[in-house]
Automatic annotation (TrEMBL):
Protein's name according to its UniProt entry: NAD(P)-binding domain-containing protein
SUPFAM superfamilies, per database record: FAD/NAD(P)-binding domain (SSF51905)
Region Disordered, residue ranges: 450-471
Organism: Paenibacillus xylanilyticus
Gene3D superfamilies linked: FAD/NAD(P)-binding domain (3.50.50.60)
Gene Ontology MF annotations: flavin adenine dinucleotide binding; monooxygenase activity
């Protein structure tokens, strides 16, 4: 059978003969940041191809579509994307409204991807499995910068190779949750209990209500995803008797979890801290601080969790369900044959580590950064978005938009624009610096736009909270 092979795509190892400079830029991931990269490339007249493993754009957002963001619409839309949409008579949502994840997908991402400038170049159900230089492993140096990248994909049950002159990896981290154990290892016991463990933001008051009603639920984690889960469980507890909530966090001081509250630059995010404080103080949630999980065991039809608090053994018995809100980590397997430099502790882009390391500081302002900081030893290869932050929990959507704007400027040779990085992020009202740190994360920066993807705001009818709302 003869296959009709699209331009820049080849079966197995047969590559078309084509000059690198005429090849498109490959984008991995059709979330907000990946689609923003596409919009930026279109604004510069540059060809691109976008690969999305899911069956629609924003596929990861669909997993938390019931969640409402912290920030209003005016801060959640990339500028280049907005210009494209408006030119196609798109009706922009009201600036002050705060969208849910579902609304982000349906009212922004899907209309953007459907534009004729984007649609032909968006490949859904296409999982990138590996990236390399054409004909060279990462060991070989001579001439590699002149060679195109080869993108190995699995597409609708078949394997293909695409060629690209540059790669922007915006695949995110949402699909790779961290384990419950404090040592960061997925034990066989945890894997075996997967039917009773949910990672992410369950729809406690929605489609998964029956799963948690009248159950003893352990929530593990101290970020906004955990707070969202707890607030919904507390509401469920009021409506369904017998619902018991236990909250395990590794932080020694629960006050650290509440955040800036009334001092937060995003009111909705600050309100989350205030609300969860009231819930804890009411006694609706049993909190265990400084708790480090060491073991999970089957206990009949339930689960027993063993850990330590200040070196003393603590056992939580008769757990029906566990919600793991311990963050996520990047999948770096696809870039094994690309020369990538990541921080050894955070798995983030190496140059970003001093700016975002949670061991050093915790605050809402991250210094502006762009192509220069995101540059890899492999020329024209970039990791952006939440994936660029690795395991750090502080990524914001506006950061990703500015990242790809700067990178695209560099790819088209406009280094002046690439180096002029401007970014404004809302203060959390909390800023702690390590004693030995010389970096001040709280210094004011000159900026153009504020946005957030790791924050969600509650309302009476909608869900709240996520610390990784944008892949």
């Amino acid at each position: 059978m003869i296959k009709n092979i699209p331009v820049n795509q080849v079966d197995c190892c047969e590559a078309p003969v084509q000059e690198k400079g005429k090849l498109p830029v490959a984008i991995i991931g059709a979330g907000p940041v990946g689609l923003a990269a596409a919009a930026q490339l279109i604004s510069k007249g540059e060809p691109f191809m976008l690969f999305e493993a899911g069956d629609e754009v924003g596929a990861n957002i669909r997993k938390w579509e019931h969640v409402r963001l912290f920030s209003p619409w005016q801060y959640n839309i990339d500028k280049a994307a907005k210009e494209l949409l408006l030119s196609a008579n798109w009706v922009a949502p009201q600036n002050e409204k705060i969208p849910t994840g579902k609304e982000i997908v349906e009212h922004y991402l899907k209309p953007l991807a459907a534009l004729p400038e984007l649609s032909p170049n968006v490949h859904l159900n296409t999982k990138v499995t590996a990236i390399s230089r054409k004909g060279l492993s990462k060991v070989k140096t001579s001439g590699r910068e002149k060679l195109p990248f080869v993108i190995h994909v699995e597409q609708n049950g078949s394997s293909f190779i695409y060629e690209a002159r540059a790669v922007i990896d915006a695949s995110g981290t949402w699909s790779n949750p961290n384990p419950l154990r404090s040592d960061g290892i997925f034990s066989e016991e945890e894997k075996a209990l997967n039917s009773q463990i949910s990672y992410g933001i369950p729809a406690v008051l929605g489609r998964e209500r029956n799963r948690y009603s009248g159950k003893k639920v352990l929530v593990v984690g101290s970020g906004h995803s955990a707070i969202n889960t707890l607030l919904e469980l507390a509401q469920l507890q009021k409506e369904e008797s017998g619902t018991e909530i236990v909250w395990a966090i590794r932080k020694a001081n629960i006050e650290d979890v509440y955040g800036g509250r009334e001092l937060d630059g995003l009111q909705a995010r600050g309100e989350l801290g205030t609300r969860i404080q009231k819930v804890v103080e009411s006694g609706a949630v049993k909190g265990l601080t400084g708790f480090h999980i060491e073991e999970l065991q089957k206990q009949g039809e339930q689960i027993q969790v063993t850990g330590t608090i200040k070196d003393e053994k603590v056992v939580i018995d008769h757990i029906d369900e566990i919600v793991g809100n311990t963050g996520s980590r990047p999948d770096l397997s696809m870039v094994r044959e690309v020369r990538v430099l990541t921080d050894p502790s955070l798995d983030c882009v190496y140059e970003l580590a001093p700016l975002i390391d949670p061991n050093v500081h915790s605050c809402g302002t991250v210094r502006p950064h762009g192509e220069k900081e995101l540059r890899q030893p492999e020329k024209d290869f970039y990791i952006v978005g939440a994936k660029s932050y690795g395991r750090a929990p502080t990524f914001l959507m506006a950061t990703g938009y500015e990242q790809v704007r700067s990178i695209v400027a560099a790819l088209v040779g406009d280094m002046e624009s690439a180096q002029k990085v401007e970014l404004e992020l809302p203060e959390t009202g909390v800023c702690s610096l390590g004693a030995n740190s010389k970096d001040s994360c709280c210094e004011p920066v000159q900026v153009e736009e504020t946005s957030s993807s790791n924050c969600c705001s509650p309302s009476k009818t909608e869900k709240a909270g996520s610390n990784s709302c944008c892949g």
